[in-house]
Structure formats: structure tokens, C-alpha cells
């Protein structure tokens, strides 16, 4: 079955960096766009970033543009979120997710990772 | 940016009764609308996409409707396991992808 296993969260100081990873299994990873979505404590969901199936294009929320970078390694079935210049307001649980559209990014997330807490 | 507004914030429903959740978009999103369920301490789970198509494993008591700006998620007969927060999301015009603030469903 589809599995997304996240790693890399933790407690960091403002202005520092952190890299999140999300290892995928149970599907043909290179055929799907991937996303990151976050949830501040007790709050709703906020979309963060999306990378196309082949890594050729990326999209970001304005709140993270220029600070965060989404990337993927299709040989390792892994998507990453490099977070630089972290701010207190970036504190959240970060979820990776598979885009349900396949090679054509759709926007709905049909499978989710377990979430990882980032505290700034 | 398309703003998604959900109502009510909290919905209390007796077991076996119908629950109706609303989601309104600040502009038309066509039929590009999804619903997610998030139980306490868990990751969200896709329930419905394209307004009314149930995702795999979504029970038939969940149904979605609407188009354009106004959408609903209906739970025809509320079960205890349906206690959760429900989020709508538009994917018609992005970036950014946008979510509603959520509706918490509880048992009366």
C-alpha cells in the first residue's frame, strides 16, 4: 500500500535551517507530483509547496517563497523540503503528500505522511 | 488568492442524524473541490475530490455536492468514528492551493 514516511523535524533557532525528508513506497513515485502542507498548532491546513513529477517545476506559498525549496530524488523515491531563514511563524506540523493528479499536478492530496513537528 | 470559508465552525449532531457542512469560495472554483477528514492526532485523509467523487475507502454515507462557489459535505447518518475536523480545499486556480478553516464535527 502507499506509504509516506517523514523525517527531519525538530527544534531550531530563528534564522537557522532544517531539511525535511519524505520517503515514498507502494507506488511509482516518478509519476506523481508531490506536495508539502503544514498545520500550525491548533490551526488549519496551509499549503506550502509542490514539485512536479519530474522535478522540472516548483510552486510555493508566498509565505515561504525565497526561503524554502522543494526538491525530489526519483532514484530514491524521496521528496525534500529545505527550510532556510526559519521564523517563529514557521512552527507547525509539516505533512508531505502525494498529488492525486499523477504526472499532471492536480492539487488534491490523496495520500499523506505522518507529519513531523518543526518548532522554531 | 481564492479564499475558502467553512461553516459552521463546530457542528454537534446526534448519532444517526444527518450532518451538513458548508464551504464557500471567494470566486468560482468550478468542480475542483476536495474534502478532507482529520481525526485528532492524525494526518488528514482525502474523503472526496472533484466535488462529489468519493476517494477509496470513503464510506457511502459521505457525499459531496455543489459547484462554482457553494459546496456541501453531507454525512447521512453520523457515526461515532466520524468525529473529526473536516477541511475543504480548492484546486481550480493555483498557486496557492487553499483550504478552508475547518468544521469540527462532534457528537451531541
- Indicate the radius of gyration of chain A in whole angstroms: 13 Å
Helix content of chain B: under 10%
Count of helical regions of chain B:
0
Strand segment count of chain B: 11
Order of helices and strands of chain B: EEEEEEEEEEE
Low-pLDDT stretches of chain A are none
User: Describe the biggest sheet of chain B?
Assistant: 7 strands, mixed
Principal-axes geometry of chain A comes out as globular
Question: How far do the termini of chain A sit from each other?
Answer: 34 Å
Low-confidence stretches of chain B: none
DSSP strand (E) fraction of chain A?
over 45%
Order of helices and strands of chain A: EEEEEEEEEEE
Share of helix of chain A, binned: under 10%
Give the terminus-to-terminus CA distance of chain B: 36 Å
Q: Strand pairing plus helix content of chain B: what structural class? A: mainly beta
**Oligomer status:** heterodimer
3D structure, described in words:
The complex is a heterodimer of chains A (120) and B (108). Chain A has 120 residues and is an all-beta fold. Helix content of chain A is 0%, strand content 49%. Chain A contains no helices and eleven strands. In chain A, the strands form two sheets. In chain A, strands 2, 4, 5, 6, 9, 10 and 11 form a seven-stranded mixed β-sheet that branches. Chain A has a four-stranded antiparallel β-sheet with strand order 1-3-8-7, with no helix packed on it. The termini of chain A are far apart. Chain B is mainly β and 108 residues long. Chain B has no helices and eleven strands. In chain B, strands 2, 4, 5, 6, 9, 10 and 11 form a seven-stranded mixed β-sheet that branches. A four-stranded antiparallel β-sheet of chain B has the order 1-3-8-7, with no helix packed on it. In chain B, strand 7 (62-67) and strand 8 (70-75) form a beta hairpin. Chain B is globular. The termini of chain B are far apart. The mean pLDDT of chain B is 97.
Amino acid at each position: 500500500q502507499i506509504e509516506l514516511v517523514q523525517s527531519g523535524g525538530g527544534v531550531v533557532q530563528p534564522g537557522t535551517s532544517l531539511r525535511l525528508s519524505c520517503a515514498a513506497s507502494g507506488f511509482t513515485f516518478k509519476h506523481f507530483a508531490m506536495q508539502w502542507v503544514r498545520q500550525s498548532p491548533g490551526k488549519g491546513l496551509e499549503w506550502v509547496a509542490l514539485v512536479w513529477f519530474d522535478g522540472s517545476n516548483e510552486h510555493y506559498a508566498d509565505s515561504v517563497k525565497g526561503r524554502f525549496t522543494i526538491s525530489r530524488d526519483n532514484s530514491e523515491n524521496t521528496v525534500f523540503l529545505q527550510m532556510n531563514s526559519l521564523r517563529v511563524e514557521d512552527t507547525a506540523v509539516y505533512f508531505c503528500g502525494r498529488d492525486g493528479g499523477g504526472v499532471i499536478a492536480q492539487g488534491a492530496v490523496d495520500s499523506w505522511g505522518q507529519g513531523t513537528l518543526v518548532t522554531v | 488568492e481564492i479564499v475558502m470559508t467553512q461553516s459552521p465552525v463546530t457542528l454537534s449532531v446526534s448519532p444517526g442524524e444527518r450532518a451538513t457542512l458548508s464551504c464557500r469560495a471567494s470566486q468560482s472554483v468550478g468542480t475542483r473541490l476536495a474534502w478532507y477528514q482529520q481525526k485528532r492526532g492524525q494526518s488528514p485523509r482525502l474523503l472526496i475530490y472533484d466535488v462529489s467523487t468519493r476517494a477509496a475507502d470513503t464510506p457511502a454515507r459521505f457525499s459531496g455536492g455543489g459547484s462554482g462557489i457553494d459546496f456541501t459535505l453531507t454525512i447521512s447518518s453520523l457515526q461515532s468514528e466520524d468525529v473529526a475536523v473536516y477541511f475543504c480545499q480548492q484546486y481550480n486556480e493555483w498557486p496557492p492551493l487553499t483550504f478552508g478553516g475547518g468544521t469540527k464535527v462532534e457528537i451531541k
